[in-house]
Amino acid sequence: MNETVTTIVGNVISELTPRRTAAGVRVVGFRMASNERRFDKATGEWVDGDRLYVSVTCWRKLAIGVSASLVKGDPVVVTGRLYTREYEYEGKHRSVTELEANAVGPDLSRCTADVQRVRREATADVAEQVEPKAATSEDAAQQTATEGGQEPADEAPAQALQVVAAGTTG
Fold this sequence. Notes:
Layout: E1 4-12, E2 17-20, E3 26-40, E4 45-59, H1 60-69, E5 75-89, E6 92-106, E7 111-117, H2 123-129, H3 140-147, E8 159-165
């Protein structure tokens, strides 16, 4: 099976939704938007172009780091497997573009970050101590469908980041 691995640069546009699967695996989801900006030579100004909205899912240690580090509005760079999921909701066929994240970080061209490394031995302790920056529920249909998916393999230890917004330029 071919996978579509991609990197998307954009902003977190929803509250983070941390949860656990029935097996106790940590998951966090959020929506992000990537907005094209281009220079219009005719007007001499920067203008908005196309937009991409995507639901992002982070598992295990990545979920812990994301929950401790990001909030709605933060500029991010997300790499992972992009796919479209189709489902029925209230009798209507729907589809949503999703990104199962392998890595998430702040977009350092638009913010700064204070990196605090987490030692491998301390990862379990940190997971219990981490308070999510944002914790509200998202669309229940999205969460239910994601719970039914296959859980990805464990990844490297999370690194907690404190993201500080910086001024942006067009």
